[in-house]
Amino acid sequence: MLRPPGDHPRTPRHLISAADLTRDDAVLILDTAEEMARVADRPIKKLPTLRGRTVVNLFFEDSTRTRISFEAAAKRLSADVINFSAKGSSVSKGESLKDTALTLEAMGADAVVIRHGASGAPYRLATSGWIDSAVVNAGDGTHEHPTQALLDAFTMRRRLVGPDAGIGRDLEGRRITIVGDILHSRVARSNVHLLHTLGAHVTLVAPPTLVPVGVEQWPCDVSYRLDDVLPKSDAVMMLRVQRERMNAAYFPTEREYSRRYGLDGERMGKMPEHAVVMHPGPMVRGMEITAEVADSDRCTAVEQVANGVSTRMAVLYLLLGGSETALPSASARTEENK
Amino acid sequence: MDAQHDHTGNAARPVLEASDIARVLTRIAHEIVERAKGADDVVLLGIPTRGVYLARRLAGKLEEITGRKTPVGSLDITMYRDDLRMRPARALARTEIPGEGIESRLVVLVDDVLFSGRTIRAALDALGDIGRPRAVQLAVLVDRGHRELPIRADYVGKNLPTSLRETVRVQLAEEDGRDAVLLGVKQTVPAGEQ
């Protein structure tokens, strides 16, 4: 491949798991995202930084939100974006992940953003040697969703520490509660790892049937009683009950779930004054969250969408912006995991 | 352009001392007022890191002269550099555009050392994405020559003819604990290999 003089061949670097990030990596991403967020306030919301680079959104599962967020992020950095969704493509005709990857490589992809139903698919793509490009995990099975965790941490830092005061800081000592379907949630898993790395104390709250096996190995506490945890929380993250993954087998009725684990106005009143309510979306109003809470000033759901674009811009910039990634430790550890 | 950091430590020779830097900035402030006929629509934008401190100091001097506050901000040019792919991605610095904006105003870019001119090229691109100033001028503490682009400064603290083997390093109290401009010799062998 032709490269301009002085342009060293870029070693491929990846973002596969939030657990791969060191505290300094994570703070660098959040600080970079803070500067990216300011671009959104300008008349021209575009930077020339990734001109000539190609980002492929490779989505084997439907996810309009995550895909358009990555698409907006890549476009604001002037990268070319190719959207490859498995439905109605060669994949539905029986193409393997490897052949899809080789096709993308031949098209000159510099980064592949992958969402896959199988846990570990992004890791396979990154470490198989099939492709040369950077791989960003946009959610794999019930494993991880690292950019969601980063944007959640970014939202918490902005709200709890402040946009300017937060620069260079982590979430030391903050108490974060994650409520709901932990079992099926890659968002919860990524958040537990990242928030722990950033010094926060995480408590998971869920019915016993929705807590994964082996959770005692995770760096967090588990509680079955939401009302006990709420007064001691700086941020409460409500997760969607993933009905499509559970066949009504995990709790008796939706009404009972929502009475014990749903967040309504009365419960929100038990939270400290400064505490925020977060939701990765899509929200099911009346199930895990009431309309009163969802529409209140303390709910950051809409903010999280905007912050998602800034955070993903930061990730793409740090992975693709230079000759090699500015996040060396993450990929180094992914390599060691082989 | 950022001063190249020489690794020679104390071998570097000071060419401007703290008092010289203060005098030079006072002169530049007077020149800005003279050229801009009162400087009432001037916006100072410093290029991180040290250009920002110089811009703030210049704003202070302008206030002493005109009695009015001059808007001052910073302009990070990292995302507009033409050598991004030659080095690992760098951390970004802050861009802070004053509330008045830059639309139809006289923007004076402030940097510590003018060298190849590539930083200023990037700054002009960055400025174009933020607004359309009436005019853009450039103030630098040191002009060391060796331009690689057709760019010149409007206000120069000191012209310092250098060879490419030499390094120019600006130290400012806000960042380095003292004010000085140091002229050193570039080490040909990286320190780690000796």
Any key phrases for this structure?
heterodimer, A: 338 residues, alpha/beta, Rossmann fold, 2 domains, 4-stranded parallel β-sheet, disordered N terminus, disordered C terminus, B: alpha/beta, 3-stranded antiparallel β-sheet, 4 helices, globular
**Main beta-sheet strand count, sense and barrel state of chain A:** 5 strands, parallel
Estimated helix fraction of chain B: 25-40%
Distance between the termini of chain A: 28 Å
Give the CATH topology of the largest domain in chain A. Answer: Rossmann fold
By DSSP (H or I, 4+ residues per run), the number of helices of chain A equals 12
Order of helices and strands of chain B: EHEHEEHEEEHE
Distance between the termini of chain B: 28 Å
Q: Mean pLDDT of chain B, as a whole number?
A: 90
Principal-axes shape call of chain A: globular
Number of helices of chain B: 4
Task: Quickly give the structural class of chain B.
Answer: alpha/beta
The residue-averaged pLDDT of chain A reads 88
Q: Please name the fourth-level CATH homologous superfamily of the largest domain in chain A.
A: Aspartate/ornithine carbamoyltransferase
Write the layout of secondary structure elements.
The complex is a heterodimer of chains A (338) and B (194).
Chain A: H1 23-39, E1 54-59, H2 64-76, E2 80-85, H3 97-106, E3 111-116, H4 121-127, E4 134-140, H5 146-161, E5 175-179, H6 186-197, E6 201-205, E7 221-223, H7 226-229, E8 235-238, H8 254-261, H9 265-269, E9 276-278, H10 291-294, H11 301-320, H12 328-336
Helix pairs in contact in A: 1-5, 1-11, 2-11, 5-6, 5-11
Chain B: E1 13-16, H1 18-35, E2 42-46, H2 50-66, E3 72-74, E4 106-114, H3 118-130, E5 135-143, E6 155-159, E7 166-171, H4 173-176, E8 180-185
Parallel strand pairs in B: 2-3, 2-4, 4-5, 5-6
Antiparallel strand pairs in B: 1-8, 7-8
